[in-house]
UniProtKB/TrEMBL annotation, chain A:
The gene is gatB. The keyword Nucleotide-binding applies. Allows the formation of correctly charged Asn-tRNA(Asn) or Gln-tRNA(Gln) through the transamidation of misacylated Asp-tRNA(Asn) or Glu-tRNA(Gln) in organisms which lack either or both of asparaginyl-tRNA or glutaminyl-tRNA synthetases. The reaction takes place in the presence of glutamine and ATP through an activated phospho-Asp-tRNA(Asn) or phospho-Glu-tRNA(Gln). GO terms for biological process: glutaminyl-tRNAGln biosynthesis via transamidation; translation. This is Aspartyl/glutamyl-tRNA(Asn/Gln) amidotransferase subunit B. It comes from Aeromicrobium flavum. Residues 352-499 form the Asn/Gln amidotransferase domain. HAMAP family: GatB (MF_00121). It is an enzyme of class 6 (ligase). It catalyses: L-aspartyl-tRNA(Asn) + L-glutamine + ATP + H2O = L-asparaginyl-tRNA(Asn) + L-glutamate + ADP + phosphate + 2 H(+); L-glutamyl-tRNA(Gln) + L-glutamine + ATP + H2O = L-glutaminyl-tRNA(Gln) + L-glutamate + ADP + phosphate + H(+). Its EC number is 6.3.5.-. SUPFAM superfamilies: GatB/YqeY motif, Glutamine synthetase/guanido kinase.
TrEMBL record, chain B:
The gene is gatC. One of its GO terms (molecular function) is glutaminyl-tRNA synthase (glutamine-hydrolyzing) activity. Transmembrane segments: none annotated. Belongs to the GatC family. This is Aspartyl/glutamyl-tRNA(Asn/Gln) amidotransferase subunit C. Allows the formation of correctly charged Asn-tRNA(Asn) or Gln-tRNA(Gln) through the transamidation of misacylated Asp-tRNA(Asn) or Glu-tRNA(Gln) in organisms which lack either or both of asparaginyl-tRNA or glutaminyl-tRNA synthetases. The reaction takes place in the presence of glutamine and ATP through an activated phospho-Asp-tRNA(Asn) or phospho-Glu-tRNA(Gln). Heterotrimer of A, B and C subunits. NCBIfam families: gatC (TIGR00135). Coiled coil: none annotated.
Length: 500, 100
């Protein structure tokens, strides 16, 4: 392996010669109470190997049985993705040797996915792009490995590995797109918008927490380049486990630049998996595609085929949430947002957060202002997506409530946000512990107003002469004296009263 | 009826996928035996016409589901009892090679 820095062609330059072709695979962990094929619980964060049984440990003689709720969720997801639902399909064994599955195979679906041939439309910068869905199939999650020895906790240099199978067998749905070819400069944003919209859809369906930061939704990004005007698809790389919406965008961008540099130099792209690094937005070589990828799929003999009754499928269709495009249109008119307001909100991945903040009592513009301003800045600084910030829509609405009640002002609100994000407690607690409440007590304000008048007799005289605009200087003095915690409106009233 | 094509290389490939260490003489023997076994399968294929769908399960049932209700798991002690080695309540496996 070379240790020289990877050469990249600048994004715009790469697009002057190549058309990117993407494919996205998204794994969604379902929020069922039990695993896919056994009754073990699925709770996150349990002590290791406390949620395992003979079925998910693959012990001899164990008989898996399909979780009805998982099939129902899979069908609802398929319908929401505008897919056909297979009238009859089977599970298959994907055979491989890796200790994350104790059975030596993963139960998945191969050539008979439960849902296929769908699409969703995503909006980027006012344009709508249709993303075709090839399939959505049912499978199970793998266990978690802990690599011991070596310096970095990675496999390289590890002495041995420790396995926790609590996650092994948790229901997963894998959504696979067809190849996505959009104008190159839009490709990274379209990929991000797609993943974002899948998340919103999963949350709306109520089938998954879809938290990328917690691993309940994971994206793999396939990318290849072809020379502009050519029909010849290039060799693709598969960047694994890209764990935020922002990273999806960055991974696409990075791989475009990297592929272009290799192709420009007359080299060829190695078909391999790549690892994405959140820290610097680069990818590094993983595993080359090899014989080991011959998984010898065959139908799972221990599970009966799934043949959803068409009446059941139609019944489930009736439970689908409002389609995303219609929902956005309805919300925009309810909120009185401009097209640009709406585009910004959706683009920031803040739609559901704004919905919840409004439901918790905030006005639409206020909800948007905080999520797209203060909070978006913080998320960006921390390299996180908005939903991953340690603040809830309810807390945002509470902070806005404090402002509406004139107990704090916008400036103090920023400090309340900072406190809540730093884990200092609920907004009320932060206000109390940091002493952030606005002073509207006439006694304290009156004293400060008197000092302001004494400090600036000229301004005071102007106000006496009817020039109310001069009050600004006195208000500024009071605010400074009271370290920003004065109720500016009340201060103004007091000044005008005293100088009338 | 012609024997299905299966070469000595195919046998070696399958053996490596299945992590079965076959000697040269075993490869020679199996390379000859496997086509004969596949011949028998072909007989069955001839018996079934296009109108007979491939069977996937010995019992003709579909939709065998279980409700999404938690049932007791094993204790970690019981789960790990059969493991050759364990540490920190986890299964200990040897160094994993050939993977990032």
């Amino acid at each position: 392996m070379s240790i020289t820095a990877t050469k990249l062609v600048p994004f715009d330059e790469a697009l002057s010669r190549y058309q990117p072709v993407m494919g996205l695979e998204i794994h969604v962990e379902l929020n069922t109470a039990t695993k896919m094929f056994c009754g073990c619980p699925t709770e996150f964060g349990a002590e290791p190997n406390t949620q395992v049984c003979p079925v998910c440990l693959g012990l001899p003689g164990a008989l898996p049985v399909v979780n009805a709720k998982a099939v129902e969720s899979a069908i609802r997801m398929g319908l929401a993705l505008n897919c056909q639902i297979a009238p009859w399909c089977r599970f298959a064994r994907k055979n491989y040797f890796y200790p994350d599955m104790p059975k030596n195979f993963q139960t998945s679906q191969y050539d008979e996915p439960i849902a296929f041939d769908g699409f969703i439309d995503v909006d980027v910068d006012g344009e709508t792009y249709r993303i075709d869905i090839e399939r959505a199939h049912m499978e199970e999650d793998t266990g978690k490995s802990l690599h011991v020895g070596g310096s970095t906790g990675r496999i390289h240099g590890a002495e041995h590995s420790l396995l926790d199978y609590n996650r092994a067998g948790i229901p997963l749905i894998e959504i696979v797109t067809r190849t996505i070819e959009v104008p190159g400069d839009k490709a990274p944003a379209v990929a991000r918008a797609f993943v974002n919209q899948i998340r919103d859809l999963m949350v709306a369906l109520g089938v998954s927490d879809a938290r990328m930061d917690q691993g309940s939704m994971r994206a793999d990004v396939n990318l290849s380049l072809k020379p502009l005007g050519s029909d010849q698809l290039g060799t693709r790389t598969e960047t694994k486990n890209v764990n935020s919406f922002r990273s999806v965008e960055r991974a696409v961008r990075y791989e475009i630049g990297r592929h272009a540099a290799i192709l420009d130099g007359g080299g060829s792209i190695l078909q391999e998996t790549r690892h994405f690094h959140e820290s610097d937005g680069t990818t590094s070589a993983g595993r080359p595609k090899s014989d080991a990828d011959d998984y010898r799929y065959f139908p799972e003999p221990d599970l009966a085929p799934v043949a959803p009754d068409p009446a059941w499928v139609e019944e489930l269709r009736g439970t689908l949430p409002e389609p995303p495009a219609e929902r956005r249109k309805r919300l925009q008119s309810e909120w009185g947002f401009s097209d640009l307001d709406m585009r910004d909100t959706v683009g920031a991945g803040a739609l559901d957060l704004v919905v919840e903040t409004i439901a918790a009592g905030a006005a639409p513009q206020a909800a948007k202002k905080w999520w797209l301003g203060e909070l978006a800045r913080t998320a960006n600084e921390q390299g996180k997506d908005l939903p991953a910030l340690p603040i809830t829509p309810t807390q945002v609405a509470q902070i806005q409530g404090l402002i509406d009640a004139k107990r704090i002002n916008d400036k103090l609100a920023r400090q309340v946000f900072e406190g809540v994000l730093a884990g200092e407690g609920e907004p009320e607690e932060v206000v109390a512990s940091r002493g952030l409440e606005v002073v509207s007590d006439d006694g304290a304000l009156g004293d400060a107003v008197d000092r302001a008048i004494a400090n600036d007799p000229d301004a005071a005289q102007k106000i006496r002469d009817g020039k109310q605009a001069a009050a600004g200087a006195l208000i500024g003095f009071v605010m400074k004296e009271m370290r920003g915690q004065a109720d500016a409106g009340r201060v103004r009233e007091l000044i005008l009263e005293k100088l009338s | 009826m012609s024997s299905p094509e299966i070469s000595r290389d195919d046998v070696a490939h399958l053996a490596s996928l299945a992590r079965i260490d076959l000697s040269e003489s075993e490869l020679d023997r199996l390379g000859a035996e496997l086509p004969a076994i596949l011949d028998y399968v072909q007989v069955v294929q001839q018996a079934a016409g296009d109108d007979v769908p491939a069977m996937s399960h010995p019992v003709p049932v579909t939709n065998v589901f279980r409700p999404d209700e938690v049932t007791p798991s094993l204790t970690p002690e019981a789960a790990l009892a059969g493991a050759p080695a364990s540490e920190e309540q986890r299964f200990l496996v040897p160094k994993i090679l050939g993977e990032e």
